[in-house]
Amino acid sequence: MARSVALSEVREERRLLLPQPLRPLTFKEFVRLFDEDDDVELVDGMVVQRVAAKDIHEDLFRWLFVLLTDYAEAKGLGIVRGSRTAVKITEHRGRLPDIVFVRKENASIVQEEGIIGTPDLVVEIWSPGDRPSDMLAKEADYRSISVPEIWFVDQQRKQVRVLKKGREGYEEKVMRKGVLRSEVVEGFWLNVKWLFKRPLPDELKTLQKLLGVQKLF
User: Fold this and answer.
1) What is the pTM of this model?
2) Nearest-angstrom CA–CA distance, 156 and 94
3) What CATH number does the domain containing 137 carry?
């Protein structure tokens, strides 16, 4: 009990240290006031500090970000951005997903102040300190703007929760093994077990496998 109280006190202290607006901030004001050095999101007009990421989160983020970026560039498929790019949800809400992919035909939504429109793929990686309520709130926001494909990578449970938007709503699948194939990043796939190996698979060899080539150079 003492530990949970201490964590809540830390979160409250972080919240109080943030600038408290006299009225709800708009998304434009949010991106003007905060930059890539501020690990914050806009929730209902309030600036909310995100929980500091653990090393296991950052290691997987780096691996997956590099792999997806290099693959998308090699195939000319679109734009990949990391967790310092804000996605506008509403006039008073903005999220910073771990990884975002936007198809090249939708590239105009990637603007100087953030992504103003619906990205094609959002990836969120759970950290040990993330609360289920926070992830559910993120999911609700991504659903509200109709993101076609959403991945929640849960490192503690060693599973990926995949949501894909269909005609009648979202289809959900929890994967602990097998091959995860993206429907929006053409031809991109991952063996689910790769995401939880330590150390993670070699990036160059994995990229070669995804591209179907023996050598890249």
Assistant:
1) 0.81
2) 27
3) 3.90.1570.10
